[in-house]
Amino acid sequence: MTRALIIIDVQNDFTEGGTLAVDGGAAVAGAISALLAAHPHSYPHIFASRDWHDAEGGNNGHFAVDGEPDFIDSWPVHCVADTPGAEYHPALELPESTVHILKGQGQPGYSIFDGVDAGGEKFGELLIAAGVTDVDLVGLATDYCVRASGLDALEHGQHVRVFTDLVAGVAAESSEQALAELAHAGAVLATSELVEQV
Description:
Pathway: Cofactor biosynthesis; nicotinate biosynthesis; nicotinate from nicotinamide: step 1/1. With 198 residues, the chain is of the alpha/beta class. It has helices spanning 25-38, 123-130, 142-155, 172-185, and strands spanning 3-8, 45-52, 99-104, 134-140, 159-168, 188-190. A six-stranded parallel beta sheet has the order 3-2-1-4-5-6. The protein starts with a strand and ends in an 8-residue tail after the last strand.
């Protein structure tokens, strides 16, 4: 069994003060850093995703270029590549070994499985190459990108744990629904207290 930590979209635009701020986003950033500091050897593989959208155009309908966003399929402009809003929140301290995954890039890209590393390799292929069988999922937002990433991980045969103390969502009701959906699909809902000291 090889376990990986997957950190979803802990970016400035998704935390307090950002274009699509999630309440509690900054606290999640700090709590993930605290987990990594307390358990520096618990995860042989750490992956962190970021939305990395194109500045031009609507990113295949993801940005509401004409008219108002519906906040379901279309959104205000956010996490544009190489802008401060797309950077990790400053409270998120990642080890040098972290593999950075960029998603979006002209597409909506909710799931980390839509993303690639710096060399262009797809995330799913990276998991296979690393022999990862179990993933712990944290980050933002529970009801969108965490949900999509968790469901895709399950479809790819991973054993998934979602740490409910290290996620935050856009809305309470939709976040609860997302967690219930993940649990129904086979994910384990837990807290980061389960992380074992190595």
